[in-house]
Amino acid sequence: MEQDGRRLRGLRSRETILQQAVGLASVEGLDGLSLGRLAAAAGVSKSAFFAHWRDKEQLQLDAVEWAVRQWTEQVVGPALRAPAGARRLFALHEARLRFYADGVLPGGCFFFAVQAEFDDRPGVVRDRLVRAMREWQEFIRRLVAEAVTLGELVDSVDPAQLAYEIDALGEMVIIHSRLYDGPASLVHARRAVLQRLRALCPDPALLPED
Amino acid sequence: MEQDGRRLRGLRSRETILQQAVGLASVEGLDGLSLGRLAAAAGVSKSAFFAHWRDKEQLQLDAVEWAVRQWTEQVVGPALRAPAGARRLFALHEARLRFYADGVLPGGCFFFAVQAEFDDRPGVVRDRLVRAMREWQEFIRRLVAEAVTLGELVDSVDPAQLAYEIDALGEMVIIHSRLYDGPASLVHARRAVLQRLRALCPDPALLPED
DNA sequence: CAATTATGTGAACGATCGGTCGTTAATATA
DNA sequence: TATATTAACGACCGATCGTTCACATAATTG
């Protein structure tokens, strides 16, 4: 009978703190996030953090881990449930857009808010972020290559090139939707990738028309 | 004989402070930028700011203004010197990429760093940013529409849609080049827009082949 | 020349930052 | 039951934040 009472309560609050941290970080960044405000949001005292994490950096690392897991479940997961090839690629894009549209995170996207903060600041947090983003990019490239192998995208497609385009068109929804366009940017991002894929797909009937 | 000695010196230091502010803000954002570090970088005392600006917010507003002017000169300007139509549109994209590649600002792009900070924080600074980004987006749309009118892009082109794509593909260079891809993302961004424009252009010879 | 204005300094302010410490109460372990 | 562990707290630390103030100096104005 391990992990009961005190132990379990620790795990619970640890998770709620991390969840709050990821949500707040999607708004004001991982460093802009202050322990005081996070404590208030999580309903604990400031010093309670240091029972779970050595310092702010350790919490940031765990927050990145948490965000990666959330992204994998809610964006990568749905894509893997679609048939491999062009349809899976587009399903990935749509799952991302749905993640944004549903407002899962108050700031839209954890990784977007955090990349802008850490792209010029060396350290373990940046290293962890770079690894996460590399794996994400690599994942898209693999889906593209797979679609080519399956004959659902023409041979001339460069996976790295197409992966960049899909990622860029999806990620910029965050800025555009929050600053001026509103939901129109979701439509633009969806149409852009859809038409691009249809143009490269020998059998466009695999993808929705619009 | 006005604006000499004291007056002129004030204008000069005002400009150097603003220039430093825009550079630093491109790295750590407009709010992450602290007056203390800015003072050190500009070689003045912290309290010198308040002779020029009422508070930090006023300095931020002027920094935005300064960044807009720099962007207009170095990105919009070169585009306007290219012949109207598809070539001007691509010249705009290339001018932006050159701005990034040349490392004009240490953080890559002022607006990118700042949008991520203010997209969730209301206030006059955010309002000014929104206006600037709206005008930028509107400018791209106008160039697209002009190219359609000139018959250099097919009629079916939706200006807002294509403007979103061009902007997104260009802006994401900042993240990708600083976090993993390096200069490869510049190539991807260039090729993506070039091929997209060539596909929509009745006379692709107007644009470079690669 | 006298009065005013503008640039700039250095010390200090209250607030907040990340982080430490000593302590308490509840739980797990032996 | 006796003894460690553990989660969580409130108080407090030095540093830094944006900002204010009194003051000095130099240039402009009347």
List keywords for this structure.
homodimer, 210 residues, mainly alpha, 10 helices, elongated, DNA-binding
Notes on the protein architecture:
2 copies of one chain form a homodimer. The first copy, chain A, contains 10 helices and no strands. With 210 residues, the first copy, chain A, is mainly alpha-helical. In chain A, α1 (6-28) packs across α2. The radius of gyration of chain A is 19 Å and the shape is elongated. The first copy, chain A, binds a DNA duplex (30 and 30 nucleotides) through residues 1-2, 4-7, 9-10, 13, 34-36, 44-52, 55-56.
Number of helical elements of chain A: 10
Shape of chain A: elongated
**Series of secondary-structure elements of chain A, N-terminal to C-terminal:** HHHHHHHHHH
* Oligomeric state of the chains in view: homodimer
**Overall number of strands of chain A:** 0
Gap between N and C termini of chain A, in Å?
56 Å
Mean pLDDT of chain A: 95
> Portion of residues in helices of chain A?
over 70%
Strand fraction band of chain A?
Answer: under 5%
Count interface residues per chain for the largest interface: A-B, 44 and 44 residues
Q: Uncertain runs of chain A with pLDDT below 50, 5 residues or more?
A: none
Q: How would you classify the helix and strand content of chain A by structural class?
A: mainly alpha
Radius of gyration of chain A in whole Å, from Cα? 19 Å
Largest sheet of chain A: none
